[in-house]
Amino acid sequence: MTEGTAEPPFDPLKVARDETLVRRRFWDKLRANVKRLPFLEHALAAWYCAIDPATPATAKAVLMGALAYFIMPADLVPDWLLVVGFTDDAAVVMAAIQAVRANLRPEHYDRARAALREEERAAA
């Protein structure tokens, strides 16, 4: 590294892998669990914030990492466990949201609520 340049706060290759994974699997995971998970509005708001061109790269990296954890089939607490299966996913998503709270705007939550209403209608 040359003097006067800063290292990126995140590994750009890992961020790119997380984003590819999330873009490919996020909606399927959401649709499969739309009626089971109370934190989906927050996860969707995180999604909309992460894909917003106005969101800083560091915030996008944090959110994509959390969303990648959410969609991974194998994680700390297996999702198939009733009641507790998604507690680790909720904790990771909520921690990421807290870390980038200033970047989440009301329109991200508006889009999340609208998308959830659409998904619930489609599931009915």
TrEMBL record:
DUF1232 domain sequence ranges: 59-94
Q: What keywords are annotated for this sequence in UniProt?
A: Membrane, Transmembrane, Transmembrane helix
Superkingdom of this protein's organism = Bacteria
> What Pfam families does the record tag this protein with?
DUF1232 (PF06803)
Q: Where in the cell is it found?
A: Endomembrane system
Q: What is its main location?
A: membrane
Q: Which InterPro entries match?
A: DUF1232, UCP031804
Membrane topology classification: Multi-pass membrane protein
Please indicate if the UniProt record lists Transmembrane helix as a keyword: yes
Which named protein is this? Answer: DUF1232 domain-containing protein
